[in-house]
Amino acid sequence: MTTLYKNIFWATLTLLVIAVTFSMLFNTSPAPANLSISEVAAKIAAGQVTSVTVNGNDLSIDLKDGTTAVSKKETELGLSQTLANYGVTPEMLAAVNVDVQDQSGFAYWMELLLPTVLPLIVIGIMFWFIFRQAKGGANQAFNFGKSNLKMFGLFKEHVTFKDVAGLKEAKQELEEVVDFLKNPKKFLDMGARIPRGVLLMGSPGTGKTLLARAVAGESGVPFFHISASEFVEMFVGVGAARTRDAFATAKKAAPSILFIDEIDAIGRERGAGLGGGHDEREQTLNQILVEMDGFDRDTNVIVLAATNRPDILDKALLRPGRFDRQVVLDLPDSKDREAILRIHAKSKPLAKEVDLQKVAVRTPGFSGADLANIMNESAILAARNNRKTITQDDLYDAIEKVMLGPERKGRVITEKEREITAYHEAGHALVAASLKDADPVHKVSIVSRGRAGGYTLKLPVQEMHLRSRTQFLTDIAVALGGYIAEKTMFGEMTTGASSDLQHATKIAHALVTQYGMSEKLGPQTFGESHELIFLGKEISSEKDYSETVAAKIDEEVKSFIDRAYAAANKIITTRKKVLEAIAKSLMEKETLEQDEFNAVVGKFNLKPLGI
Ligand code: ADP
Ligand code: MG
Ligand code: ZN
Q1: Residue 142: inside a domain, yes or no?
Q2: Higher-scoring residue by pLDDT: 307, 135
Q3: Which atom of ligand 1 lies at the shortest distance from residue 329's CA?
Q4: Pairwise pLDDT comparison (57 vs 330), residue with the higher score
């Protein structure tokens, strides 16, 4: 609405400017006297007039005394006729210089038309502005069915496979797809079918979108990109229309690639939503299926899609002829993490001593996006401290910032709280240092970060994909270490241990119900997780076992926790001196790095224990 007011303002201003301009153009000299025609006649008769200029019905009169005057004659009559009626004889008139001006000039017409036409023009312009606005709105409404496709790869910033670290299998698979597009004949001649759809699956931040963009950069064919959530709008039926439009555009540009990002937004299993079985998403999904089936054998369009929830995708999407190729993007291992760090370190000045491998070792479970974030945070830290280069410590700080949130040195804690936190963390660290199968302690700190009061960072020596029961039990024991230390030292427990207990219980539960690691219950899983689609979260777990089994599960969970508790408790009570040494050292230095921690513990020559 404000634009309407603006337009009115402009129109008024224009009008004013025109009016002022005209009045300046036409009124340069002081206004001449306005005489009636009888006065003019009298003046002519008295011989006071030098000349009369006739312009239409207007008369301008120059008088002998040097002044001028204007007048009007009667419309139908000529000048001499009019004057004759007032008693001016032809002889008298002969003494006056009469000049009749051409009446058909531009100025004449302008003068005649402007007063009527000008307002019309101004009003017209105003309406034009208003209508243009309204029409824009209307067009938007009618454009809902358009897919809003973005094309990139051809002229936008160029991403290639070189910019993607690791993900070897995924890259190989996609290189093949690119090859299909470039030399379809090679494959068709062999009777091979060109893959229709490739589904990239991987947790958030593993580089799905990045990889797709790299395909765009490598293939050299038009690459269309749309996020599935854009298909679904306020109006019913829009999603299907947009899908149709997107596929039509891609087909027209063939050979081409159509990339549907975050396809889980529409590709969820049909009939599972709470919003009724007939909702917008389903229609959109159906349309995608129809479009993909509608490709001819040699239509040269490949549909790429990405999701981080392959588990909830509709099975129909994964059938041959649709997304029949599935590429899994794993979280990077330590070598790949180093490579990713290296890519993102390219434009950043690193200090000489920086060892990215050490950073990679400290970041198991981090995704590519997390690592990119670490490099960025470290640069910010360096800049904030006015350093010219990024140091190793900046990188370490950045890891913790990304993992746990920013340090909160300013948080006010009492001396007592500090002591409790120190013993708590020392408890974790001591149990970890004592047990044979525990991961080595990399860092212990009582500086609070994010929501954690303190933290003990332990990392596996080598990344492993399988974990044994002993390792799980060890994890539980280490998690309980903080709680037990508080209890033994202060005879009291605090809320600081609650997330540790949650963690321990979760592991114990998984041991029994998911991994079949309980002897009593045997190799069987219990409980099937379900999720409610509309919340997109796992919120219910269906019980597929009887009450007696439920009781047994609880019993087994408890026995695992008890076993770990006993082991941790023994360590803390028999090695109380070590616990105190660690806690004292923590209170003094706040943070112990691996070597410092080992120096403290090393003095006691601890024997590694089993669990
Ligand atoms: P998603 O899988 O969620 O689509 P993105 O592709 O958007 O993840 O990745 C986010 C960012 O993380 C990328 O822009 C890139 O900077 C970084 N990244 C992720 N994986 C890699 C990788 N393998 N190599 C280099 N950078 C990566
Ligand atoms: Mg993405
Ligand atoms: Zn803890």
Answers
A1: no
A2: 307
A3: 2
A4: 330
Spatial strand order of the sheet with 197-202 comes to: 150-152, 223-227, 256-261, 301-307, 197-202, 325-329
Are 318 and 177 part of one and the same domain? yes
Q: Which residues line ligand 1 (CB under 6 A)?
A: 164-167, 202, 204-210, 306, 340, 343, 368-369, 372
For the chain, what is the domain count? 4
Q: What is the pTM of this model?
A: 0.63
Kindly give the pairing relationship between strand 301-307 and strand 256-261. parallel
Closest residue by Cα to atom 27, ligand 1, is 368
Q: Give the domain CATH number at 392.
A: 1.10.8.60
Q: What is the CATH number of the domain that holds 547?
A: 1.20.58.760
∠ CA 416-420-421, rounded to 5°: 115
| 483 and 569 both lie in a single domain | yes
Using pLDDT thresholds of 50, 70 and 90, give the confidence band for residue 532.
Answer: very low
Rounded to the nearest integer, the mean pLDDT of the chain is: 81
pLDDT tens for each residue of 562-602: 999 999 999 999 999 999 999 999 999 988 988 999 999 99
Q: What is the pLDDT of residues 395-420, one digit of tens each?
A: 998 988 888 777 776 666 788 888 99
Give yes or no for a contact between 242 and 147, defined as CB atoms under 8 angstroms apart.
yes
Q: Which of 282, 419, 425, 486 is catalytic?
A: 425
- Whether residue 342 sits in one domain with residue 318: no
> Domain containing 566: what range?
415-456+464-602
Same-domain pairing of 234 and 321: yes
596 is catalytic: no
Does the CA dihedral 37-43-46-49 come out positive or negative? negative
Ligand nearest to the Cα of 160, by number: 1
- Shared domain for 232 and 343, answered yes or no, is no
- Nearest atom within ligand 1 for CA of residue 207: 6
456: CB partners within 8 A, 6+ apart: 425, 428, 429, 432, 441, 443, 444, 445, 478
Distance 306 CA to ligand 2 centre (A): 7
- Considering the domain architecture, whether residues 201 and 302 belong to the same structural domain is answered as yes
Residue of 199, 208, 210 to mutate, ligand 1, most atoms within 8 A of C-beta: 210
Task: Give the tens place of pLDDT for each residue, 458-489.
Answer: 776 666 678 899 999 999 999 999 999 999 99
